Amino acid sequence: MSNPPEKQREQLDMFLEMIQGPAIQVVIGTTTTDFSPSVYWLPKAILNVHSAFFRQQIPIANDNHIIIPDTTPGIFGLFLKFIYQGSYPTRKDNDAYYAGDKIPPSARAWILGDKLGAKSFMNHAIVHVYQSLGKIFFITPELIEWCMENTTATSQLRQLLVDTLIVHWSKNTKVVAKSDVLNEYWNRIFDVYTDLRKEFIFGLKGELRLGNMHSYFTFEKPGAAPEPEVQISTEKISPPPKSGSAVKAEE
């Protein structure tokens, strides 16, 4: 259902207010990264609305300048698309899959959102991840290893990926990449991450079920300022030709 005209006008007025006023320089990357740093001049108001990190850093920024060294311009670009347009396209994950990227951009976007304290952006990214599982990308040992290294035990992204691993491990759904070649990699993952192994075994015994999409959302703490609503993507996902071929590609 579309918003009534009054609501649309209110949203437009709010957006126009957010892109007015003073701007701050945001630098993505450093001279030590393997890409040239990207520099943006962004309205402080729109950053303050969408990010707890910017709300904290803008008032104390030296020379009106903030550096974010641990992300890439491409992933930060998804954040910019979200704060200016309300969403970013599903094809970003699809394009990354065909380009051979082992980690979906939406998973990296969730990590960025977590660092920025941008919960609406995190939830938008988790929508993409949830809708893409088994269609655009698959649960591989490499993805789980990356997840374990880049998320905390209470991370909603980790919970979604681990739940999916457990639920589909014994099913013939091709959502989890398994093969004789990958068995050694999986065994190493379970040996290194003992908490994952315990959760995996417990989940298999307990007949875990995958939660609905909203159960993996990250919510504001009571009393915190509300963030913009998350738009659920209705864009059609174009899966790879065959899920089996994706599993084979991981071998």
UniProtKB/TrEMBL annotation:
PROSITE patterns in the cross-refs: BTB
Region (Disordered): 227-251
SUPFAM superfamilies: POZ domain
Every BTB domain range: 44-92
Gene3D superfamilies, per database record: Potassium Channel Kv1.1, Chain A (3.30.710.10)
InterPro entries (UniProt xref): BTB/POZ_dom, SKP1/BTB/POZ_sf
Record PANTHER family: BTB DOMAIN-CONTAINING PROTEIN (PTHR47843:SF2), BTB DOMAIN-CONTAINING PROTEIN-RELATED (PTHR47843)
Entry protein name: BTB domain-containing protein
